[in-house]
Q: What sequence folds into this?
């Protein structure tokens, strides 16, 4: 391995000195020696990654992109990268570098084909260069959408070099409004790669537009850049966004390279812009790492768990202190706050952020208003239209429980209590299917406006369409649910199972998951869980939810919020049976009450 590291250093030294001839020749001589077969996987990984990083060094230099040997180096780079990816040896920093190389090469090709130099030479300085970029962008309306995207990225690169916020905001705004049109031209893996590569541009666009005091444009950029696939290329205006603020504020949350920020839309006037420096992209990534490690022990699929001071509570407190307490101060009005998180910050349980000073002195998001989520304002508007179409009547209830699912470990002893509690509170028609099979559910589902599924569930975060619900006879994937679910206006789906609210972590902006699939199928609202949950705590929570919704008459998002507040504050004497943990407040830990979130209207 020693010669490999020496060769890598020689390539880097040549690139640093601008000797691209020597760098390219060394890489092309090295490429045939990169062995992938017949050796240990550890050696494949190490040798391949060292070569990959050496190739990336010149490819990230714009001066090398016109070099005659660049195409051969590029082919070697992608050949090794594809093999390492197939063998699962690439790590996130490698993918980030490869994404940057792909962007630079695409920009370079687009600029060459359209005759645009990286810095347009013209007299008059900055103003004339700006006008030249504007003209180039307008003329690019007639070129393929992918090429226009590359021109937009090159425009952004120029503005970042110049460093003028107004110019950066202008370029980002133009690009983000174009992205849905480009996404519509792509299919399959190409679309996924595109959406993964551009999702950061949405966050950056919102930030720079807000810094330039173009607050309404910032909201539109975040609105257009979220859930691109499901919302398509439909134009959206600021009045379209404010039209859904009747029962509370919309809060767009995002993390840019420069820090986190929020845009709060409360009425027809300009949104409130809040800078949240403690929620930068790097800080959010750290919180996600901590929460994934700390919440995995609370399993609905196993016996009740022992209490822990674990990282989940610490993360939610940190999330509160880093900025969400400020958001509450400006948005905590009305019955409901609607979160529209953009980017990776949407993978955090924002509704559960808070601070527990003492058992009887707690400040959480839900203390001030009920919290719900929506893919974007357009999706929320469609959900509200479904509620109006139903005339306020939810229809018949289908309550399903599966204590012993096919291939699932352990029995869910309390799911029957959930379906019984729902049946008891329901004034209209009810169908209860105990130990339900998939064919029985498919037959009954079309005739009911509310579905309650109490069963095992499991998520596959890196292949979200393979996430599944477990029926008595088989496990059903999200992919199959999307294909066979009957479409039509329905009031609510309650997915009382583990990990039913998870989205693809590589595409958080597209919110691909069970809630979005059910919203697309015509449901106005969905309740789902973000992690593995305790069986008994979930049964108590759901029983209280139906009391608040059907008994007290609160809308579902408010009913869930009240049920969570009740479970968090409930004392041992107020709970039936034997609680799962000790202490005067057995379910005060967020892992018991905070997993479920409401999406929709």
A:
């Amino acid at each position: 391995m020693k010669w490999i590291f020496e060769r890598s250093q020689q390539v880097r030294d040549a690139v640093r000195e601008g000797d691209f001839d020597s760098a390219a020749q060394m890489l092309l001589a090295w490429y045939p020696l990169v062995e992938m077969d017949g050796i240990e996987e550890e050696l494949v990984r190490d040798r391949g990654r060292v070569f990959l990083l050496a190739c990336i060094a010149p490819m990230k230099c714009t001066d090398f992109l016109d070099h005659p040997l660049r195409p051969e180096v590029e082919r070697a780079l992608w050949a090794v990268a594809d093999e390492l990816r197939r063998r699962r040896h690439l790590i996130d920093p490698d993918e980030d570098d490869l994404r940057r190389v792909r962007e630079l090469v695409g920009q370079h090709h687009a600029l060459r084909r359209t005759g645009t130099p990286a810095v347009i030479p013209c007299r008059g300085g900055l103003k004339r260069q700006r006008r030249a970029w504007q003209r180039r962008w307008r003329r690019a309306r007639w070129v393929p959408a992918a090429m226009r995207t590359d021109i937009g990225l090159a425009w952004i690169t120029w503005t970042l070099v110049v460093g003028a916020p107004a110019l950066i905001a202008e370029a980002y705004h133009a690009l983000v409004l174009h992205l849905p049109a480009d996404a519509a031209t792509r299919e399959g893996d190409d679309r996924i790669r595109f959406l993964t590569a551009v999702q950061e541009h949405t966050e950056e666009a919102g930030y720079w537009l807000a810094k330039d005091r173009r607050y309404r444009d910032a909201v539109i950029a975040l609105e257009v850049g979220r859930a691109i696939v499901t919302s398509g290329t439909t134009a959206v205006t600021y009045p379209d966004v404010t039209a859904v603020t009747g029962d509370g504020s919309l809060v767009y949350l995002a993390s840019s390279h420069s820090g986190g920020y929020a845009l709060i839309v409360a009425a027809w006037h300009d949104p409130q812009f809040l800078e949240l420096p403690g929620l930068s992209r790097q800080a959010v990534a750290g919180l996600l790492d901590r929460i994934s490690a700390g919440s995995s022990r609370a399993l609905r699929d196993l016996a009740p768990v022992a209490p822990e001071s674990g990282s989940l509570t610490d993360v939610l407190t940190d999330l509160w202190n880093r900025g969400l307490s400020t958001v509450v101060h400006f948005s905590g009005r009305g019955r409901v706050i609607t979160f529209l998180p953009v980017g990776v910050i949407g993978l955090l349980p924002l509704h559960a952020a808070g601070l527990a000073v003492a058992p009887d002195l707690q400040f959480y998001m839900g203390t001030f208003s009920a919290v719900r989520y929506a893919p974007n304002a357009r999706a929320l508007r469609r959900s509200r239209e479904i509620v109006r179409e139903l005339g306020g009547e939810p229809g018949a209830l289908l309550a399903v429980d599966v204590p012993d699912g096919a291939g699932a470990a352990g029995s869910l002893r309390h799911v029957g209590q959930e379906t019984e509690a729902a049946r008891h509170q329901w004034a209209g028609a009810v169908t209860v299917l105990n130990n339900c099979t998939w064919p029985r559910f498919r037959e009954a589902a079309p005739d009911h406006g509310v579905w309650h599924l109490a069963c095992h569930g499991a998520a596959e975060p890196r292949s979200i369409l393979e996430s599944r619900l477990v029926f008595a006879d088989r496990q059903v994937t999200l992919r199959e649910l999307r294909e066979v679910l009957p479409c039509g206006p329905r009031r609510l789906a309650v997915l009382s199972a583990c990990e039913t609210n998870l989205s693809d972590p590589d595409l958080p902006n597209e919110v691909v998951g069970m809630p979005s699939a059910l919203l697309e199928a015509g449901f106005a609202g969905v309740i789902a869980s973000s992690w593995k949950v305790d069986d008994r705590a979930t049964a108590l929570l759901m029983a209280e939810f139906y009391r608040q919704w059907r008994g007290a008459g609160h809308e579902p998002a408010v009913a869930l919020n009240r049920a969570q507040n009740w479970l968090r504050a409930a004392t041992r004497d107020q709970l039936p049976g034997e609680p799962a943990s000790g202490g005067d407040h057995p379910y005060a830990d967020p892992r018991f009450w905070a997993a479920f979130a409401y999406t929709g209207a």
